[in-house]
Design brief:
This is FMN reductase. This protein has 188 residues and is α/β, with parallel strands linked by helices. It is 37% helix and 16% strand. It has helices spanning 17-28, 56-66, 84-93, 119-129, 162-187; strands at 3-9, 33-38, 70-75, 105-111, 137-138, 144-146. Strands 1, 2, 3, 4, 5 and 6 form a six-stranded parallel β-sheet that branches.
């Protein structure tokens, strides 16, 4: 069984380290997770004025994320928080009455060139995702903060730091078990 995971890429950069991490995970864990990156680059800025006539790219984004078993957020840290584009995407996920990610199992990874590896951004992201209109069921206790990421990914975009790889292996295994338990509880 592979879990269909949509990975919301929290950066709009064409050289995003978080995208490189997601691509690494997509390849390494293909036997367990079917990971598809979902990009937020071209989403309209959220406005209640647009809610009754949702732009096509926003509808496609929401449908893409909804069409999954689980969601992964790959978040960089900008100015001690999440990027504005990611907050905009989350605002869209919370609106329209379809509860796109409510009760959907999920987890968060994040990296930065700084030593803290998106710690503050992830704290803010978890707070934002606790909104009842969002409320994914996040894997607890498996925070993935990859600091100095530029020293851990080679020119080909491959993660090379064995300690980080071992840690990701464990987190993915924990997520798979968490997902199975969550799914069993829902079916019970």
């Amino acid at each position: 069984m592979t879990i269909k995971v949509k990975a919301v890429i929290g950066s709009t950069s064409s050289t995003s380290f978080n995208l490189k991490l997601v691509e690494f995970m997509k390849n390494r864990y293909a036997d367990q997770l079917d990971i598809t990156p979902v990009f937020i680059n071209d989403l309209e800025t959220f406005s209640v004025d647009l809610e009754s006539n949702v732009p096509a790219n926003v509808k496609a984004f929401k449908d893409d994320v909804k069409d999954s078993d689980a969601v992964l957020f790959a978040v960089p840290e900008y100015n001690f928080s999440i990027p504005g584009a990611l907050k905009n995407a989350i605002d869209w996920l919370s609106r329209g009455g379809d509860f796109t990610i409510k009760d959907k199992p999920g987890f968060i990874i994040g990296s930065s060139m700084g030593v803290l590896g998106s710690v503050r951004a992830q704290i803010h992201l978890r707070e934002i995702l606790s909104n009842p209109a969002l409320s994914p069921v996040l894997l607890p206790g498996n925070e993935v903060y990859i600091g100095s990421v530029h020293e851990k990914i080679n020119e080909a975009g491959e993660l090379t730091d064995q300690g980080t790889i071992n840690f990701l292996d464990q987190v993915v295994q924990n997520f798979v078990e968490f997902y199975k338990k969550n799914k069993a509880a829902v079916l019970a």
